[in-house]
Amino acid sequence: MKRRISVCIITYNEEKNIRRCLESVKWADEIIVVDSKSTDHTVQICREYTDKIILRDFPGHIEQKNFAIDQAADNWVFCLDADEEATPELQDEIKSVLEGEDTQQAGFYVSRKTEYLGEWVTYGRWYPDFKLRLFDRRYGRWGGENPHDRVDINGQTGRLKGELLHRTYRDLSHHPDVINKYTTIAANQKHARGIKFPILHAVFSSVFYFIDSYIIRRGIFHGSRGLILSTMGSYYVFLKYAKLWELYHTSVKMRK
Q1: How many whole angstroms separate alpha carbon 134 and alpha carbon 222?
Q2: Could you read off the pLDDT tens digit of each residue along the chain, which spans 256 residues?
Q3: Strand pairing partners for 232?
Q4: Are residues 33 and 96 in the same domain?
Q5: d(Cα 65, Cα 78) in Å, to the nearest integer?
Q6: 8 Å CB contact between 157 and 106
């Protein structure tokens, strides 16, 4: 018997991306959208594809995504971000998994390919970017550390050949804005766990990121884009720890 599937998407002000995402999964048995009270036309667009839309304050990426899969009517879920879309090849592959005999796998990793400054990234640390997105929710939950969530699964996993297409940064002005937002979340998470600012780790991690992305993983093949992307990634790593340093010293001053 064919297994049913629920697609789970969280959104906030994604009117520029959400239609591509929804078009790529409109074949699913169910689409669930958990929206963090968007102020643009995201919800109106989603209503063209599903009536299962829940408006909810944003408690964090992990918490919101777990809430979304908890609303699913089916055990098998396919989770996408609003700025992602499944290629036709991936769609067909997922359908084959659902229509096949009972699988031994509890989940499947998918390679994500990101567009950056008008070009698909196929070198550097961004590709292949394997994400576990198709899984049986009886064996998997979202975990990790905000904002870098991941699916923790108790069972065997496989890999699909089809890709997710990811359009995350509109331009060079948007990229630093996202870095600033995500590094703040990451620093706060580490500070809450009592992690102090490790200066040597911050320096070496950011330098290693650049070398690994631009040289070892051949980001240099993307020319100027590869240089920009590797530099931005290195900046992200250092800024995360710099904000952790700021939080630590602010808390020390408050205790005096």
Answers
A1: 30
A2: 588 999 999 999 999 999 999 999 999 999 999 999 999 999 999 999 999 999 999 999 999 999 999 999 999 999 999 999 999 999 999 999 998 776 789 999 999 999 999 999 999 999 989 999 999 999 999 999 988 899 999 999 999 999 999 998 989 999 999 999 999 999 999 999 888 877 788 899 999 999 999 999 999 999 999 999 999 999 999 999 999 999 988 887 777 7
A3: none
A4: yes
A5: 11
A6: yes
Domain containing residue 229 = 174-255
One domain for residues 17 and 62: yes
Identify the domain boundary among 119, 144, 167.
167
The burial of 108, by beta-carbon neighbours within 10 Å (0-12 exposed, 13-18 middle, 19 or more buried), is given as: buried
**Closest residue by Cα to residue 117 from 219, 229, 13, 212:** 229
- 108 and 230 together in one domain: no
One DSSP character per residue, 198-242 reads: -HHHHHHHHHHHHHIIIIIT-GGGGHHHHHHHHHHHHHHHHHHHH
